[in-house]
Write a structure and sequence with these properties.
Belongs to the class-I aminoacyl-tRNA synthetase family. Helix content is 56%, strand content 6%. With 329 residues, the chain is mostly helical. It is globular. The structure holds adenosine-5'-diphosphate and sodium ion (NA). Sodium ion (NA) binds next to loops.
């Protein structure tokens, strides 16, 4: 019996994943690969919708793939691919672009936000057609489930609409994918502004980049914003800073939040931060070493990505051939 398919991707737009990417996405990918036929993609085509430098992009693509591997994505079990290695992504996206209404695409809130932020002259058309490329990524692999954060929900809704539209007009071709959130997925907040999610767009001293010097991150944790109270209690509304630290501590140590609350009963915020800084360093140091090792083995990493691309081309090529045929190509 074949396993349900899952597809997910991350853009190679930073020198390092941050802890939110790791706990909110990568650890879920690692779990999902046990019960799914998973396709995990470094979406480099998407990343050129914003400013980029070719050599930086090339390096980030490799380091991003290396972080997937170091985090536990198993290339024997899952398909790890770089989007630009599989031409079918760009090819199917054109067909889907032609099936998307101009008004429909104009309603995408991410496009509206970003084009407003950058202005229409600095925004490429790729920013507008981004969701159709994302739809192609997902539909090419006949994905049943797509783990997505809130920010990608509208794009997945469009993907479902496009799959249904294509199937209705040209005959059953695509699996209509479902959004999928693994139970217990952590949301990580910025250490300095704990009402906002940790994000590379905020960056700065509230964001823990996994590949940064461990002592830099330890310092960020020790300087995290807390409230003026004394009690170490999980209460996101009243104590967002402390609650965020407890979430991180729990995820990295495997202890439950209740266990941590009990362990820190009567202790101060400083104790919690100091201990969490150590827990983080114990996690990040071997992760960082592993990433470096994987990146240093150029041939080994190339071979893993070549195998992933080959498997991906087989699956995606079959879907594309059917879709092209149905369209009349
Ligand atoms: P960023 O917000 O830093 O640009 P991305 O949008 O590239 O991050 O997100 C990549 C993946 O990481 C997505 O699956 C997203 O849902 C997840 N993710 C990003 N930030 C967080 C966070 N603070 N907490 C949990 N998951 C997150
Ligand atoms: Na984001």
């Amino acid at each position: 019996m074949s396993l349900p398919r899952v597809f997910s991707g991350m853009q190679p737009t930073a020198d390092s994943l941050h802890l939110g990417n790791y706990l909110g996405a990568l650890t879920q990918w690692v779990k999902l690969q046990e019960t799914h036929d998973a396709f995990y993609c470094v979406v480099d085509l998407h990343s050129i919708t914003a400013d980029f430098e070719p050599e930086v992009l090339r390096q980030r693509t490799r380091v991003t793939a290396a972080q997937f591997l170091a985090g536990g994505v198993d290339p024997e079990r899952s398909t790890l691919l770089v989007q630009s290695h599989v031409a079918a992504h760009a090819e199917l996206s054109w067909v889907l672009t032609c099936l998307t209404g101009f008004g429909e695409a104009s309603r995408m809130t991410q496009f509206k936000d970003k084009s407003q932020r950058y202005g229409t002259d600095r925004s490429g058309v790729g920013l507008f057609t981004y969701p159709m490329l994302m739809a192609a990524d997902i539909l090419l692999y006949q994905s049943h489930r797509v783990p997505v954060g809130e920010d990608q929900r509208q794009h997945l809704e469009l993907t479902r609409d496009l799959a249904q539209r294509f199937n209705t007009r040209f005959g059953e071709t695509f699996v209509v994918p479902e959004p999928y959130i693994v139970k217990g997925t952590a949301k990580i907040y910025d250490l300095q502004t704990p009402d906002k999610q940790m994000s590379k767009s905020l960056g700065g001293s509230g964001c823990l980049y996994l590949l940064d010097e461990p002592k830099v991150n330890a310092k960020k944790i020790r300087s995290a914003v807390t409230d003026t109270g004394r009690e170490i209690r999980f209460d996101p509304a009243e104590k967002p800073g402390i609650s965020n630290l407890l979430t991180i501590y729990s995820a990295l140590s495997g202890q439950t939040v209740e266990q941590l609350e009990a362990a820190y009963d009567g202790k101060g915020y400083g104790d919690l931060k100091k201990d969490l800084a150590e827990v983080f360093v114990e996690f990040a140091t071997p992760f960082r070493d592993k990433v470096r090792q994987i990146v240093a083995d150029t041939e080994g990493l190339d071979a893993v990505l070549a195998r992933g691309a080959e498997r991906a081309r087989t699956v995606a090529g079959e879907t594309l051939a059917t879709a092209y045929d149905r369209v009349g190509f």
